[in-house]
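Final report, Chapter 2: Outcomes

The project's central promise was a pipeline that accepts a single protein chain and returns its three-dimensional structure in a standardized token representation, suitable for archiving and comparison. That pipeline is now operational. To close this chapter, we reproduce one record exactly as it appears in the project archive, with the input sequence first and the structure output second.
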Amino acid sequence: MVSVEEHASKLDFRGVLTALIISSFAFVMALSWRDVIRSLIETVVPQGEGLTYQFIAASAITIISVIAIFLVSKYMTIRTEEKVTKK
């Protein structure tokens, strides 16, 4: 029979591995979108005002990312608690 500590350790490893894989994909997506956003800003924004719009875009992306991270971590906490209570 598997002890509670061993089971918790396996859950923790799976969670860390899942987070690592998701973070890697998110980083690659961010790098690919970086060039698209930069080109869009250079095309749409008048010369000399690019820094302001880059700041606004970076702030909006940061706010959206923080909200997404919060929601995902909340969801993962609920899922982990459900798994622990079922066993």
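Archive annotation: Helices lie at 4-44, 50-86.
This record, like all others produced under the grant, will remain available to the consortium after the project formally closes.
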